Amino acid sequence: IRFTHAITRRPARSAVDGLRAVDIGAPDLPRLAADHADYVAALRATGAEVIELGPLAAYPDSLFVEDVALCLPQGAIVMRPGAPSRLGEAAEIAPHLRALYSTVARIEGPGFIEGGDILVTGHEILIGLSERTDEAGVDELRAIVEPWGHALRVVETPPGILHFKTDCSLLDEGTVLATERLAASGCFGGYDVIHTAPGEEASANAIRFNEVVLFPAGFPETQARLVAAGYDVRPIGNTEAAKLDGGMSCLSLRF
Ligand code: CIR
Fold this sequence. Notes:
Blueprint lengths: L4 E5 L19 H16 L4 E5 L15 E4 L2 E4 L10 H10 L5 E3 L11 E3 L4 E5 L5 H11 L6 E5 L11 E5 L2 E4 L1 H4 L8 E4 L11 E3 L2 E5 L3 H9 L3 E5 L2 H4 L10 E2 L1
Parallel strand pairs: 1-2, 4-5, 7-8, 10-11, 13-14
Antiparallel strand pairs: 1-15, 3-4, 6-7, 9-10, 12-13
Bound molecules: citrulline.
InterPro entries: DDAH-like
Protein name: N(G),N(G)-dimethylarginine dimethylaminohydrolase
Enzyme class: hydrolase
């Protein structure tokens, strides 16, 4: 939850063509850009250095940088996205990671793994298998990070949920925010869990970043639960990224 850096990528105009499970219309580009700018400002306000990468027209989903890498203290790992249209984003992020890290590993395949399925907590790395992340991808990641001292635990992302972290977030080393449907799978044994309020499942994807919690605006009951638990909540507009199934965690790499 303590970070000195974040990497973000500004949305391209092609974001209107981004992947979405249910089409409720294309994101409004000016609003998407404004929300993205608010997000970057909130990260910067904590004192972190935010590296803003330029838009990539060829990759409509490239604003969701979280999916293409995993940043750990020992090094960075370039992921291998399970969405064919996103595979090329991995090569785009790699040089930026090499500029920041002396160790940059890469998932070579044939497996797939996306950062949205990976929750790094105070004592382990939780990975949800999903439509985007398979056993072979996890095995390859394990071979890289176990020698670095990380324990991996593999769980299932419930069907119909894009990524494991679509439905959960880390609030502090031992506390998660999660939907009831995900917590019901039993994957958070040993953690304190704050549930999203009924009907506010779309607010489960938040991020703890230094002293603040970046949280999608428009989910008052869940926000009140976080405030009552003592968190400093910064609501950020997310209506447009949400049309592409994106949320707070997807928009940055944090390290
Ligand atoms: C996708 O389907 O890949 C994008 N439209 C959304 C990615 C969201 N990323 C995340 O949850 N980490």
